[in-house]
Specification:
Chain A is mainly alpha-helical. Chain A has nine helices and three strands. The termini of chain A are far apart. Chains A and B meet through helix 1, helix 3, helix 4 and helix 7 of A and helix 1, helix 3, helix 4 and helix 7 of B. Chain A binds a DNA duplex through helix 3.
DNA sequence: CCGCGCCAGATTGTCAACAATTTGGTCAAC
DNA sequence: GTTGACCAAATTGTTGACAATCTGGCGCGG
């Protein structure tokens, strides 16, 4: 039986912190005091320091010499930037998934689409969100592009804080479903161009709505 | 007068190591012993450790528990993967540079193109390579997409070890020049679609040649 | 009342010592 | 000759202590 792989403590802490920040357990601009984090995660301060350096490089936190680290508040324009960059990569992933994907992957996609449909008819936002993630994940797996995986992983950790704003927009799930269906269809019929186009369309509309949501928030004084 | 910003030692060491690995000062699979690096860069072992963690996350090195770090040897398929991912992002950057670039940037591009032409007529490979980097850098600046910048920076650090193979191909500079000229023209005339297409074409041919160069190397032994 | 310098506490940056683990080699037994 | 246990050196993993620096508040002088 192959041991569940060791994984360095530092790597682990980076992942935990990344997740925590992405989930909003630390608010933007919140100070991240090394000693506190060390205690909270029951590790040495050195590990926290290392994790912060990694997250700094990823853009999730900012560190100023002798002034410590804080959660980086991504600006509105930057959020859009990130969404656009994600779009560029996921469009490529959709293409590669079409070209390199296996039958099992295509079957998975179709199943996920079904679940999505159910989520929409039942107005189950949580289920929909879950299916959404599953679909994108399956496409990444089919594409088998580890580089793209890593980048998307990082980009999404920036976006999760924001996407709930979009998902909750009235009528969004229904529109999103149609877009997803188009992607699944293209991938399953082996039309790589169409798959890329469909994904591009999907994420373009996501980016547009994100932009609107941001504007609205700014106006409405949150 | 704004101080040239402090920059943490750790961040600095990460950058130095990244550069060194990218330049091939450490060969693939070479062991990276913390104590040795600490001495070479005149810093504490803790700094090296942190830097290695960052580079691990970036995919430049691999670390195994209790067995240390070594330069990650990127496989052939992965090199192509990286080139394709780069393509996806730079195509977007070209588009954004067209839409958001300023007149000064466009003037720069035209100047760089001139220098490139000179490099080709003089068969000055070093100059050409320099112009090539300058052109892509200027496009990134014009696009003003910090997220894309960071990602491209990382991706390129993986590719530099390989690109000399492509640049040295007979006739490559001349073909590359035409592709670059098309990009500059599209960006300067404000045709974003054309700019994206031109960049895509340019990097597609780069990826194709990289693939060929890799195949050739594999055949030719060594 | 306001500004300024200065001090104490909090926090980060640096470092060296120590513990834990792997690796490669040696030697004995078969 | 080969196998395997075992030991020593090298290396990584962990931890605590100490130095350097920032922050906020206090009191002094204007």
């Amino acid at each position: 039986m192959p041991m569940p792989r060791p994984a360095l403590a530092e790597t682990d802490i980076s992942a935990q912190l990344r997740e925590a920040i992405a989930r909003g357990q630390f608010s933007p601009n919140e100070r991240l005091v090394e000693a506190e984090l060390a205690e909270r995660y029951s590790v040495n301060r050195a590990h926290i320091r290392t994790a912060l350096a990694v997250l700094d490089r990823e853009g999730l936190v900012v560190r100023l010499p002798h002034r410590g680290a804080h959660v980086r508040a991504i600006s509105d324009t930057e959020a859009i930037e990130i969404a656009e960059t994600r779009l560029a990569i996921e469009a490529m992933v959709a293409r590669q998934a079409t070209l390199r994907g296996d039958a099992k992957g295509r079957a998975s996609l179709r199943q996920i689409e079904k679940d999505m449909r159910r989520a929409v008819t039942q107005s189950d936002a949580a289920l929909y969100s879950q299916c959404n993630a599953a679909l994108h994940r399956e496409l990444q797996r089919m594409a088998g592009n580890a580089t793209a995986d890593r980048i998307l992983n990082t980009l999404k950790s920036h976006l999760v804080r924001l996407q709930y704003r979009v998902i909750l927009l009235p009528g969004r799930p229904r529109a999103s479903l149609a877009e997803h269906a188009a992607i699944v269809k293209a991938v399953c019929t082996g039309d790589a161009d169409a798959a890329e186009r469909a994904m591009r369309k999907h994420l373009t509309s996501f980016a547009r709505l994100l932009k609107q949501a941001i504007e609205a928030t700014r106006m409405g004084g949150f």
